[in-house]
Design goal:
Length: 238
Amino acid sequence: MDVQDSHAGRSLVPGTDRSTTSSTGSKLAALDSLPARLDDATLTRVEALALAPLRPLPPIEPVELDRQLLLIMTLPKQTASGVAGAIRAEAYAHLLKDMPAAQVEWMVDQVLRRCEWLPAPAKCLAIAEEWHRADEPVQARWKAEALARRERQARLADTRERLRTERCEQDWIDALPERTKAILETEGLLRRCDDCGSYAQRDDWRQWQEFLAGSEGAPDPVARAADAFPSNRERMEA
């Protein structure tokens, strides 16, 4: 997944900035093309992407910041003030100049929607803090986290099934992740060996086979309950 980050686009969800890039080499496109099950190498890369630090968004360009501040300054002032408009705009610019364009644009949009009067700079900052980044690199991280979690859960389910239905080699059990072995111990599928601290398959694993084999032809419990307690309509028809 040799791809490039991209962070363009406008907010599609309140409080977020979501990229709509269509680059065929994007990480998100690469993740979407992965199969339902991941091999070890792919899982390692996906988990690395989920944990990789995000590239910071660049600060808003001065020209764009001036344009956004003009929009805010259209709001009426609640009290009379002798401060010139240019000086007031400079104060807002000082606080907003290091923010990414998407955050400033979202904040300005929210100020125009919520405020009847020109808010104080501190109020603008508070509104800006509600914004959450959700451009393509962030979406790729979310996707990678979901894919890795799904594969780990599928592998755990496969391990459970094998421990329930067959005698497993000790080397295979020893190679399982420590967290997986701890989970399987709490579920009664593995036991911890007191002498060496390792894990082993339970001696009564065959009981799982007998249980599963016996349940295949067993009658449905709902159907048995229906036979035991006929409905009022059936009693009337009888």
